[in-house]
Amino acid sequence: MRIGFKLFAEAYSPTELVRQAVRAEEAGFDFVEISDHFHPWLHDQNHSGFAWSILGSIAAKTSTLELATGVTCPFVRYHPAIVAQAAATTALLSDGRFVLGLGSGERLNEHVVARGWPPAATRSAMLRESIEIIRLLWSGGYHSYSGRHLELEDARVFDLPESLPPIIVAGSGGPAAKIAAELGDGLFATEADRDLIDRYEKAGGAGRRYAEVPLSWAPTEEAALQSAHKLFRFSATGWKVQAELPNPVNFEAAASVVRESDIAESFGYGPDPSRHLERIREFADAGFDHLALVDAGPDVDGFLDFYRDELAPALSKLASA
After folding, report:
1. Any signal peptide, and if so, which residues (predicted)?
2. Within the chain, what is the greatest distance between any pair of CA atoms?
């Protein structure tokens, strides 16, 4: 089992995220994962830097830390050819430490280019075509592609790494699990859902299984829960809502009825490591082997110290078990 740290790109500036990644490597994390957003979820977060620039800077300032997008939508705001080039370049800059996480995206980030927001079934088909295009361009040489939704004309990615980045496909249902099994190198999820892994394996998937574990560290339970509610209350709206709303103001409205008690049901929070370990164990027991810890607390450095001194030794025992 490998443990990562989720860079909360919606809540911190690009320079601060680079600093956090360096600290995460020093604290013993195996990887960092960053969301690829244009907007934050909430106005309380108030940030959303360009993920690819941040990854390049992190690559230059770390040496062992694996880097991952968690995740990139490759077909509305971007074209998959651009994602193929960006991922290949990031893999080169990081000496092969990059993992490309792909998903079908959210209206929040994709509508900004005024190309519309397709229905879920169409987005699933577009994700499949995008991965086919990326794989094609990573095979070397010039290529064209004519799909139902996406086109590629006489394109070549010139700078390719010797070892291509693994592609991890995000999803919460059967179609995404099937795409991950057929075209990806692993599965990405945000819930401790054993059924999703079963569908992935039934479709032939045998790769890495990534998940994000929601935590919030603070010296008191009250402070940890208050911070998690302030920064992460959008998460209680559920994925079908998260995929469809266009702007932070809409998420502010949708999350206005979310209480701290609602957040408490899904987060490991407070200063007690056992509460955090219980939440982490849920994902490990569900079958996930790459766990990205998300800290929604008020003190990132405090959390990183907490991980190094208390969580990491306990997780080492869990991984051995």
Report:
1. none
2. 58
Q: Which residue has 């208050």 as its token pair? A: 226
177, 280, 19, 97 alpha-carbon torsion, rounded to 10° = -40
C-beta of residue 39 within 8 angstroms of C-beta of residue 247: yes
- Smallest CA-to-CA distance from 270 within 302, 231, 309 is with 302
Domains of the chain and any CATH numbers: 2-320 (3.20.20.30)
Q: Of 301, 214, 189, give the one whose Cα is nearest residue 265.
A: 214
Per DSSP, 165 falls in state P
Verdict on whether the full-model pTM lies above 0.85: yes
Query: What distance, in Å, lies between the first and last C-alpha atoms of the chain?
Result: 10
Residues 6 or more apart in contact with residue 35 via CB below 8 angstroms: 6, 7, 9, 10, 51, 69, 70, 71
Q: Cα 52 from chain centroid?
A: 13
**pLDDT tens track for 167-225:** 999 988 788 999 999 999 999 999 999 999 999 999 999 999 999 999 999 999 999 99
pLDDT digit string, tens, across residues 100-123: 999 999 999 999 999 999 999 999
Q: Which of 10, 25, 106, 129 is an active site residue?
A: 106
Let me know: does 98 contact 90? Beta carbons within 8 Å.
Answer: yes
Closest CA to 228 of 190, 193, 268, 174: 268
Query: DSSP 3-state assignment of 212?
Result: strand
Residue pair 129/99 in contact by the 8 Å Cβ criterion:
no
Please spell the DSSP secondary structure of 258-300, one letter per residue: --HHHHHTT-EESS-HHHHHHHHHHHHHHT--EEEEEE-SS-H
SS3 203: coil
| Known active-site residue 39 | no
What single-letter DSSP state applies at residue 1? Answer: -
Backbone angles phi, psi at 219, to 5 degrees: -65, -20
Question: By the 8 A CB rule, do 128 and 50 touch?
Answer: no
